[in-house]
Each structure stands twice: as structure tokens, then as C-alpha cells.
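Quick start: what a row looks like.
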Amino acid sequence: MTIARAAVHHRPKSSDAYAYDESTVHLRIRTKRGDVADCTILWGDKYGWEDTKTKTPMTRIGHDERYDYWQVAVEPPYRRLCYVFCLEDAEETLWFTEWGFESGTAAGPDREDGGTVHFFEFPFVNPVDIHDPPAWANDAVFYQIFPERFANANPDLDPEGVEAWGEAPTRNNFFGGDLQGITDNLEYIDDLGVTALYLTPIFESTSNHKYNTTDYYRIDPQFGDEDDLIELVEAAHDRDIRVMLDAVFNHAGRAFEPFQDVIEHGENSEYADWFHVREFPIEFEPIPSYDAFAFEPYMPKLNTENPEVKEYFIEVATHWIEVADIDGWRLDVANEVDHQFWREMRQAVKEVKPDAYILGEIWHDSSAWLRGDQFDSVMNYPFSYAAYDFLATDDIDAETFAEKNTKFQFRYADQANKVLFNLLSSHDTPRMLHRCDGDVDRLRLAFFLQLTSPGTPCIYYGDEIGMTGGNDPDCRRTMIWDDADQNRDLRAFVSELIALRQAEPLLRRGQCRFLHEQCSGDHLVYQRELEGHDDTLTVAINRGDEPLEVAFQSGVPELVFVSDGERDTTGTVPATGGAVWRHVE
């Protein structure tokens, strides 16, 4: 059989061809699964072809249900290159170029017969265009806190009608959590091993969730004041814990003063163009006469293309970095805001704090936002849902999980993959223990997967002690502080996993390659490797009820971690458990 030409795909200046750093370019190509035996790349400098031309083999990184994915790293001597791919199987050799499949490619960009081969080009490695997330994000373990439900340290701040801690949450009730409650419990967070906090919105708002902001320059009085935020950030920084806040710039609250002015003055309001009003006067029912988050009338959508709106919110973003020294922003409903706003906000934020972490809330393919000009990372819900399907519901097997995540890996540049925000639960989803139908062993396995996978893990408050809860608002229960009601063994296990991750650079920064031949049924096996390191880690997960034997090419490497604590020297993974081994070259 000949090579399936229709399956071959490469797009220059994309996640298929990008600058990894100032001297390295990564090139990728897709072919039909099992169709191509070898793939090499012919590349060089177009202005000095004869002196620079090089043929480099590519590595098959993995596959999904339809395609193989290949990758290679090259270092062009003059920061530019042209290139073509050579695909081979038992019957034919093909040259794949920018114009498709052409002959004569080995002769270089200009053929001896006077014709031209249409090489792909990477015109120049411009450092300013490189996607360069802050280095600390590679090493971080985040802890997400819903401030209203974490800890009530100052009852004097409680809103009227506050309920007793531990009662059932509703969409509208309050429990009195505050910023001081977070500060007072930093020792607990630090002891867990966490190195960064993500707080859902803390600015003035009428709701318990605070996603309908009234005043972006004022801490909600229920939580405290500006000094309380500064105290929290300083205390966290003293423990080498960073703090990221939630930015709600897609929409404001109905009580936001500019929107109130529009309600009162209609099209004559000086703020009329701050929002997307379809028809005046303002109507709230049955569907608001203005764009909103979903169709929620209390969350009017902001017109971030308006220069005044843009200036206002970019100043908000820089203000809290300058005033409180926060370390980043999580951007709510980020995919519904125009790209230009995010570009300008990023520039302003990075000028004030170059290593600030900018995280977008996007639940789907986020390629358009991860090109180095907007976000450092996104919330990695595709990983979350694959984990749910594999570990909570058994809807997919290990091979399918590996295939899906290989496909996900090729959506983004490697430096983006290393800081994708990996979560199992959040304030917007059922808790992982609920998804696992109360099975703590499966929850332990989910933590094992999360903390040994590439990306930046985030633990939702209370998951580490076995808190449960269904859809919002049930997932927003108050934190359990009574030791007798906490699963302390689970917490110790999570802490041990975090310590393992912090001790192993390969788990924090290494590439991930699934060993597809060993991924089947209940058994998932993958390797973590990092350029410049002689060792490789093999990670195995077994969701089944019987122990798993991992096949190693030669001998049994050093056992680094096993979930049941039985540190034997075999290649055995316990039932509903995981293990990590080290290979040294």
C-alpha cells in the first residue's frame, strides 16, 4: 500500500512549527496511523543552503485513533530555516512540501533543471514572539479557594443572615468566609506542599460567588479590605507561596455604576457604549435587551473594544499587582473577550510584573490564545474530562485516554503544555470524589495521575481531605476543619505526591510519551523525560482490581514511588494504584 497522502498534515508558524526558545525550533507532522515507517526532515538556511543543509530523523511521539504524530527539534545557525519532510514506507519515498508532494526535493530549494521546490519556511526566530510562560509556573502546585467557603476568621465582617458553618450551600446563602481566614490557614496550605493560591473573585459584589462585580477597585467588605489582601499576599510570599486572583473582565455586575447609569439614562448615558445594548430602554426579561453572560440579566457583558473600557480594566489588572503584589490573573470567560484586549492587557501586566502568570478560563481547544501574545496557560478541562472518563466512570480505557491526550499534546507548543492548568474539581464542576461515586481509592488514583502528568496541577480546596459535592452550588460547601471529619490518610497521600513532584524535575518539566503498547484496558503507562537528564521516569496506573506487571526492556529499574507504600523491587503496580520507576542511561 502507498502512503495515505490525504492524512499528511503540517502547517507552518503554528503548533506544528514554533520557536521553543531563542535557538530551537520544534517541527511536527501528522501522518496516518501505522502508515509511515520513517519520517525525516531536510532543512537548512535558504540563503546558505549548501553549507547548512541537514537531514534529521523525526521521532514518532505517539498516536490517536487515526493519526501518528512526529516531532523534531532543530537549531538553525542563523535563526531561520526552510524545510521539507521525507516520508518513507516499504514501497515508496515521498517529499512533502508547502505545495504538497513534489519531486526533486533533495536538490534543495532551487532544482538543477531551473525549477523550484516550494520549501516550508520558518522566516526568523524573533524572541518577542516566543511563548514564554513564567518559569515558576512549571514548578507550581496550585490550591483553589472559594473565599466565602474556606474559613471565617472575622465574624464582624459577616453579611446579614450568615448561616452556620457546615450547613448546605445554596446559590444565595452566605457563610462568612474571609481573607483573614485564608491568611490564618496558610500553615495548613504550606504543610500540604502547595506553592500557589488561586482565589475566586474577591472584589465587591452582591453575590456569594462575586462573579458579578460591583466595584473592581474595592475588596468586598465581607472579605475584608485592601490591607487584608496585602497581609495575605505578604504572608503567602513569606512562605514562598504565590497568589493569583480572578479577573472578571467579560462582564460586570448589574450594580456596577456605569451599568446603573445606562439603566437610568439609556442611550444618553456616557456609558452606553460600555456594554452591548441591542435596544433601549433596558429590559431584563424574558431575555435581557443587552448581551450578558449566558442570559443572566445581572451579568451585563462589557464592550472591551471600547477604548475607555479597555483602559479602565487594564488599569484594574495592573493596579492590584502594584498595590498588593499579586502574582497573576485567572481570566473568567476568557474566550468571549476580543483577542486585542487580551494582547494589550498582557503587555501592560508584563511591564509591571514580567513573571506574572496569565491563565484563561477556556474549556475547549485554546490554540488561538496560546501563541505567546495573550495567555501563558488555560484551564485544561480536556485533560479533566479524559480523567473523569478513565478513572471515574470507566467510559474509556487506557488506550483511548492515551490517544486523546496525545492529540491534546499536539494542539500546543511544548512550553504551553508544561504549564497547562490541570484540575480535577473546581467551583464550576462536581467534585472528583462525587464523580467517583465516593470511591476514595479512585480519587487517590486521580491525584496520582494529576500530579505525575505534564502541566501545572491545581487542587480544589477540601478535595485533599475527601470533601464531596455535586453540581454548583453543592461543590461549594464550607471547608471541613475538624480533624475527626477529615480523611487524614488521603491528605497525607496527596502531600506525599506533591513532595514527589517537587523532588523530580522530570515530573514538573519533562516531556510525556505514552507507551501505547502497554496502554490497554485498565492499564496506563507513560514516560517522563527531560533534555539534559540521563534518567527517565516510567509512570504506571492500574485502575483494575488485580495487580499489574509492567514490562521493562531490560531488568527492573529503581522504584521511586508506589501508591500502597509497599516498596518491593518488582515491576508490580498494586490494584487501583500507581507506581513510578527511574531508568538511568
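That is the whole record. The first strand starts at residue 17 and ends at 19. The two ends are 38 Å apart (CA to CA).
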